[in-house]
Design a protein that fits this description.
By secondary structure, the chain is mostly helical. The protein has six helices and two strands, in the order H-H-H-H-H-E-E-H. Strands 1-2 form a two-stranded antiparallel sheet. A hairpin with a 3-residue loop joins strand 1 and strand 2. The N and C termini lie far apart (about 45 Å). InterPro entries: DinB/YfiT-like, MST-like. It holds the Pfam family MST. This is DinB family protein.
């Protein structure tokens, strides 16, 4: 019987943990392995999750620009891996981005709004619900990719 805010924060934290768990016990090659025609890889999903956090909590909520923060404009760029991206570096960045997201949201009420370039004004409540949905969807994608990768180990 937690408050609405605590429920949203806890569900988001749970989904964040599931995103990070996608990389548990994988080799660098496995984390980068491409199994679908898109740019989606397990490491790319975690990198994209950090991008989504930044778009909503670092840009939209405080009214900053992507350019100010170095957040890509092209969503595909959020999945592209640089040669020096590793499980450790992408995981650490995701944790750092999530901590900053929590700091940004802390001083705002759920009804406070930010303006998104495409969607217009959205409340912090909406941002929480959207990020819960976004991370849950991508964790599901990642579960399927991870299952395929782990099955290939045994083949």
């Amino acid at each position: 019987m937690a408050s609405e805010r605590k429920t949203l924060v806890d569900l988001l934290a749970s989904n964040r943990a599931e995103i990070l768990e996608l990389l548990d016990g994988l080799t660098e090659e496995e984390a980068r392995r491409s199994l679908v025609p898109s740019l989606t890889t397990l490491l790319g999903l975690v990198k994209h999750a950090a991008f989504a956090e930044q778009v909503w909590f670092h840009v939209t909520l405080p009214g900053r620009t992507r350019a100010e923060l170095g957040v890509p404009d092209d969503i595909d760029d959020s999945f592209r891996l640089a040669p020096d991206d590793t499980i450790a570096s992408i995981g650490e960045n995701f944790r750092k981005v999530c901590a900053e997201s929590d700091r940004q949201a802390f001083d705002h009420d759920l009804d406070d709004t930010g303006t998104h370039a495409r969607r217009g004004p959205v409340s912090l409540r909406w941002m929480y619900v959207h990020m819960i949905e976004e991370l849950a969807r991508h964790a599901g994608h990642g579960d399927i990719l991870r299952e395929q990768i782990l099955a290939a180990r045994e083949a």
